[in-house]
Structure to design on (323 residues):
């Protein structure tokens, strides 16, 4: 086709022999050209590999082990939304999103979903985003609360590798702790404490010498620490005039990403990947540390991370004792 015959267009030339014939000047096999009636100039071209996506990481990351695994994510708020994207970016094959809430306008400043999703169920908004960004991950959206319809959650827990709870309410966290224990499923709980100044991740293993969430909290209190659990029922922006909730999106997303890392590490450690072993079962890290909290929450530097071991079950615990 003559350049003068039409207006501007893009042409593609292919020469399989060129790279071998001219090895010293690195001629590519395929070149794109922007052609005008006056001239033709080369333009950048990207050839999509047949191994596009996670197959590109095979041999460097346990792709096969993760693509067959499922993770249940309870609550898809500011922390949970970021965790969902992180789980997909690790290559988790299936994610079950559990959250009855809709995205409201005041959520957008902290949420991974944009204002175009306001009014939609959070599980639907995040499901659509994951389908666009991470099509290899299958997503189930359950717009239900984890507390009342436990009969819907309980059987699904037996089919997932780990349940990740990012709820900021006491009841939901305790229900997940209880149901996961009874299903013999690992659980990871993530939240922010101290009005968003401290991030926390707790891993609960369904093992005889590992206590549930309530046992963990009571063990801390017995050692002289405060129990931060009740304050989790305060929503963002509803703190007192002297201690408002000032967590920002970036910090909440960081907590979600670290929680996803803990969940993926838990799955991979069970598959024999020793390089994924966590330093402990309870992580506390500084986002905006303030003075005055009792150990182990007394972090005084932004970015400090403190790992704690597990606590044993309390005698008579209704969650930890076998029914």
């Amino acid at each position: 086709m003559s350049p003068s015959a039409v207006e501007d267009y893009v042409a593609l030339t292919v020469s399989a022999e060129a790279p071998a014939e001219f090895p010293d000047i690195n001629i590519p096999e395929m070149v794109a050209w922007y052609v005008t009636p006056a001239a033709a100039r080369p333009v950048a071209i990207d050839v999509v590999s047949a191994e596009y996506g996670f197959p590109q990481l095979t041999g460097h990351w346990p792709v096969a082990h993760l693509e067959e695994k499922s993770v249940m994510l309870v609550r898809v708020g500011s922390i949970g939304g970021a965790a969902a994207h992180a789980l997909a970016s690790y290559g988790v094959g299936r994610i079950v999103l559990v959250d009855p809430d809709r995205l409201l306008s005041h959520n957008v400043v902290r949420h991974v979903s944009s204002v175009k999703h306001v009014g939609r169920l959070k599980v639907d908004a995040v499901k659509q985003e994951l389908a666009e960004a991470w099509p290899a991950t299958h997503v189930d959206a359950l717009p239900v609360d984890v507390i009342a319809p436990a009969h819907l959650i309980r059987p699904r827990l037996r089919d997932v590798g780990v349940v990740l709870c990012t709820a900021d309410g006491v009841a939901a966290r305790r229900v997940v702790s209880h149901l996961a224990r009874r299903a013999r499923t690992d659980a990871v709980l993530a939240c922010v404490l101290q009005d968003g100044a401290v991030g926390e991740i707790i891993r609960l293993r369904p093992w005889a010498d590992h206590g549930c969430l309530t046992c963990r909290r009571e063990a801390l209190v017995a050692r002289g620490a405060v129990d931060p659990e009740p304050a989790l029922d305060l929503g963002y922006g509803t703190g007192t005039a002297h201690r408002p909730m000032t967590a920002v999106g970036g910090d909440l997303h960081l907590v979600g990403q670290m929680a996803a890392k803990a969940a993926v590490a838990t799955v991979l450690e069970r598959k024999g990947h020793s390089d994924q072993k966590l330093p402990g079962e309870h992580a506390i890290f500084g986002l905006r540390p303030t003075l005055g909290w009792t150990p182990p929450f007394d972090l005084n530097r932004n970015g400090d991370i403190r790992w704690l071991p597990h606590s044993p079950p309390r005698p008579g615990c209704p969650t930890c004792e076998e029914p």
Q: What stands out?
A: The chain has two domains: 9-43, 65-308. The chain has a mean pLDDT of 90. The chain has eight helices and eleven strands. The longest helix spans residues 249-270.
